[in-house]
Design brief:
single chain, 522 residues, alpha/beta, Nucleotidyltransferase, domain 5, Hypothetical protein af1432, 6-stranded mixed beta sheet, 5-stranded mixed beta sheet, 15 strands
Length: 522
């Protein structure tokens, strides 16, 4: 009998707005993943950033001292595989780069400052995995995942494995609190002003959610434990469920209390009591724009999402494919929003992926870039919704301005640029959109746009005339063998027109071959 291999260790350190958390886990598979150490320390990074726009030298020094302690703990456990990430507070600090440099020089940690899209995706993965584990998801029922962080708010609507809607808003519990000074918070008008402030920020989400009957709101956030404590619920409940009536009773009780009364009634410290009203008003406004009868509070955090993704990728768990399909479903729903031509988009998507796979020996790009190409192919024509002239430019703008979880902002820039160059133009620093990319991204965009451009040419008429397409790399030639269902002249001429750019980028000449007999062109 083969000896079972020792579990792998992975650690994640999350520098948040209100606390710094270290979590160490071990796993052999996703099924036996377990946390073996978890510790958190309170920090006030968010308050500094939202008040002053900066993180002070004193605070960054305290942060580095804390991280050195965490590093010793990693060493004691023998952890070599880890990530150190920071979210809202450091992301929005004017002196972000200086703090990152201080962390590197004073602790040896390479700190990643993740963008809002990544942050919300990590939490979504943690929430979704918990919901899946407890079999909460039911056919035909919509779940609204709501991530409430210190500085942001993310809505993700899932139904039957399809993400129908995703929207991120720069409003969170701590940011809301810091948007008002102490005198304003002490005013008798604060409750009404706070409610109106939050509603005005999320009102547009209501019309998008109105088309769906939502079974549960599934929420994550640092203040979940505070809310459960005020409701008298166990803090370690893996899946606490709170009905609308129960929540509204708490809301009515809290809205009539001042700060000292909150502290006394719920046995809260001053900092927690100051967060209570903004948090509860925010939850109330979220409930008010949905028809959900209940809120689920899973015990799932950002560190859990990062750990799950790491373990799933290392063990090639099917969860990755499930999540990728959800991201693709969101891209297709985004295309539907802008009235894209489904049949043409699907044809270009299929052909682009065939070209990518055939060219692997030459382009040397990883499978992640295949995924970027796939999303770009789905969305390449959505700019036509704005204007048929220069639609490629508007495709770029729409993709860039859309919230698509599962990608970093840099990856979204790459996707948008692939769409920008899907039909014409040579990627050049004369274009502002291309100039913003780094060297590696520029090469990637050139290679992937050359593929989507050929794919688009094979369905130039938007009539899906190609019954079959077999692609082979033969020396210095890329043979694209097609079986046409109809006259293929337009596609032939367009293919020939795009061949020069493809050869310039990839060093091979594409040749279109008619399976029914003869070679087109070049």
């Amino acid at each position: 009998m083969a000896k079972k291999s020792a579990p792998k260790l992975f650690a994640i350190i999350h520098i948040g707005s209100e606390q710094v958390t270290l979590q160490i886990s071990e796993y052999s598979s996703l099924g036996d993943l377990r946390v073996i150490e978890k510790t958190s320390r309170e920090v006030f990074l968010g308050e500094e950033t939202f008040k002053t726009g900066r993180i002070s030298f004193t605070t960054s020094g305290q942060l580095c001292a804390l991280l050195r302690g965490y590093k010793r703990l990693l060493s004691e456990y023998g952890v070599r595989d880890y990530r150190v990430i920071a979210t809202t507070a450091l992301r929005e600090a004017e002196n972000q780069h200086y703090v990152v440099d201080q962390v590197r020089t004073r602790t040896g940690f390479e700190l990643e400052v993740v963008d809002m899209l990544q942050e919300i995706y990590f939490k979504y993965v943690a929430l979704y995995h918990t919901i899946r584990k407890h079999q909460v998801e039911r056919p035909g029922e919509a779940l609204l995942f709501v991530d409430i962080s210190s500085g942001g708010l993310g809505f993700t609507l899932l139904k039957d494995g399809v993400i129908h809607y995703q929207q991120n808003v720069h409003i969170g519990a701590l940011r809301i609190k810091e948007s008002f000074d102490k005198n304003q918070r002490d005013s008798i008008h604060f409750h009404q002003a706070l409610s109106e402030y939050i509603f005005s920020s999320i009102e547009s989400v209501k019309s998008e959610l109105a088309h769906h009957k939502i079974k549960y709101i599934v929420t994550s956030g640092n203040e979940n434990h505070l809310l459960l404590q005020m409701l008298g619920r166990a803090a370690n409940d893996a899946l606490a469920v709170v009905g609308r009536d129960e929540f509204h009773a708490l809301y009515e009780k809290v809205s009539g209390l001042n700060l000292p009364q909150l502290m006394k009634t719920f046995r809260l410290g001053e900092n927690k009591a100051e967060m209570a009203l903004p948090t509860i008003v925010l939850y109330n406004q979220i409930l008010s724009i949905t028809n959900a009868p209940e809120i689920i509070f899973p015990d799932a955090q950002l560190v859990d999402g990062v750990t799950l993704l790491h373990a799933a990728e290392k063990t090639e768990d099917p969860l990755i494919a499930v999540l990728d399909e959800q991201i693709l479903s969101l891209a297709r729903n985004l295309g539907d929003k802008y009235r894209y031509e489904i049949a043409h988009s699907s044809a270009v998507e299929t052909l682009s992926l065939k070209l990518f796979d055939a060219m692997v020996p030459l382009h040397g790009l990883p499978s992640r870039d295949r995924f970027l190409l796939q999303v770009a192919a789905i969305l390449h024509d959505i700019g036509k919704y704005v204007n048929l002239r220069r639609h490629y430019f508007y495709s770029y703008r729409l993709i860039l301005s859309s919230d698509i979880i599962g990608f970093t902002e840099r990856e979204k820039e790459v996707i948008a640029n692939i769409a920008h160059y899907h039909s014409k133009g040579t990627p050049s620093d004369a274009d502002g959109n291309f100039a913003r990319l780094n060297r590696e991204e520029k090469v990637k965009v050139a290679k992937l746009s050359s593929l989507i451009r050929l794919a688009d040419s094979i369905d130039r008429s938007h009539k899906q005339k190609c019954a079959d397409c077999v692609i082979r790399l033969q020396g210095d030639t890329l043979e694209v063998a097609v079986t046409p269902l109809d006259n293929f002249s337009l596609e032939q001429w367009t293919f020939e027109d795009k061949a020069d750019f493809f050869e310039h980028v990839n060093g091979v000449r594409p040749v279109l071959i008619n399976q029914a007999g003869g070679s087109y062109g070049i």
